[in-house]
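Hello again, I could really use a second opinion on something today. Take your time with it, there's no hurry, and the full record follows here:

___
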Amino acid sequence: MTATADQLQQDMQSLSENHSVETIFVWDFDWTIINCNSDEYVPAGFLGDEEVVKRITAEMKEHGPTKWHECVANLINACMLEKACSNDDILEKAAEMPYLIDVKQALTDVANNKHCRQAIISDGNDMFIDAFLRKNVMIDFFTAVETNVGSWENNNAETSFKIRYQSSKYGGHECKLRCPPNLCKTQVLKDILNRMKEANGKDAKRPRIVYVGDGHNDACPALQVLNENDVLLAREGKRCPNPNSVSGPQFEKDHDNAASGTFAILSTLEKAE
C-alpha cells in the first residue's frame, strides 16, 4: 500500500480499529515522521546547504558511503568548532526539524489506541530524535526507539560529537540485502518482536505489523519480516525542495508544485521482485 501524508491519517485510523490482535506500528524517522533528513538538516542550519553538500561529497568520495555517520559526526563537530555552537544549539536545531501535520495526527491517533504500540527504527541518531520528539510532545508515543547512539565526549576541554552504530548492540549484522554496516532494520524488527513475545508470554500471538517508511533500507524488513497479515505503508510522491530551509509543522500540499526527488522504497521493492 502506498501513502501520501494526506492519506496517512485515514489509513492509520482504519488499520488501528481491528482489535482482534495487538498491532505494532513501526515508523522510519527521516522523511517519514519528519519531512527532511536529520543528518543534513542539523549541520545545514549552521554551515549552510551548499557547504554541507560540498563536505559530504568530499568525504563520501574519500571514505565511501559506509562511513556516512562518521561524516555526520565530522559535520556536527565542524559546526561547534567553526561556528562556536554549543551542545544545546545543536539539539535546539534538531528540535525544529519540519514535520507534516497529517503525520503527527496519525501518530497521535495510534498512540491513543490501547490496542496499538509504536516503535521507531531509524538510521539517524538518538540525540536528534529525542530532541525532536520532546519538543513536539511525542516522546511518550513510542515503546521503542532503535537507532544509532550519539554522544558528547570531552577531550582536553573540547567537546566532540560521536555516533555509535545501532548494530553494535548485536555485534554487527550479516544482512544479505546490502544494508549499511550500522543498521539492518530486519535485525532490529525481529529483536523488537522477540522482546514483545518475552513480555507477553510464549503463547501470545505475534502482533500485526504496520510498517511505515520511505527508504531502500525499509525494503529489507518489508521483504524479510512482513507477512500476508501485515501492512506496508510505503511513502510515495516527491520530496519537498529545500527541506533544510523550513521548520515545524507543514502541509504536504504546500510543496506540490515544487516537489522534486522520489522516495527509494518503491524502486527497491520493484528490483527485488
About this structure: The chain has ten helices and nine strands. Residues 168 and 182 are 7 Å apart (CA to CA). The radius of gyration is 18 Å. The beta strands are 2-3, 23-27, 99-100, 116-125, 144-155, 158-164, 208-213, 231-235, 249-250.
